[in-house]
Write a structure and sequence with these properties.
There is one protein chain. By secondary structure, the protein is mainly α. It has three domains: 52 residues, no CATH class; 35 residues; 36 residues, no CATH class. The chain is built from five helices and no strands. 0% of the residues are buried.
Length: 124
């Protein structure tokens, strides 16, 4: 029974993670004016437009550079904090762990949009 449940979890996560990437890849070759209305036309027009822009390689390089620098800084800090929380008795360790979970489950973009909407003079 446990193997069946694990297989369901793996299949569900695979569909949840891989299917959107496959759809995005499929639509990247669709060059028709309206994606959802026939007739469909397929080609490399979207790819040539994207990589024909000289700013795209710079943007990709900057994205990977930021990712790498954040990983280099954040990984050792996160390992050290997790070791301290797991192996020592510090005050409010459960509260710190709770706040780490909250930060993980409540993405920064959603919280930023929420704060912007709440603090907007016309809608907040």
């Amino acid at each position: 029974m446990g193997t069946f449940i694990m297989a369901l979890v793996i299949i569900s996560l695979s569909v949840y993670l891989i299917l959107p990437m496959l759809i995005l890849f499929w639509f990247s070759f669709d060059v028709s004016k309206d994606v959802f209305v026939p007739p469909r036309e397929f080609g490399f027009g979207n790819w040539t437009t994207a990589f024909g822009n000289p700013r795209i390689p710079t943007a990709l390089w900057n994205s990977f550079l930021v990712w790498f620098l954040v990983m280099i800084i954040a990984f050792p800090i996160s390992v050290a904090i997790s070791m301290v929380l797991a192996r020592t008795k510090i005050p409010f360790s459960q509260g710190l762990e709770f706040f780490f979970w909250i930060a993980y489950m409540f993405p920064a973009l959603a919280s930023t949009i929420g704060w912007m909407m709440m603090l907007a003079p016309t809608s907040g």
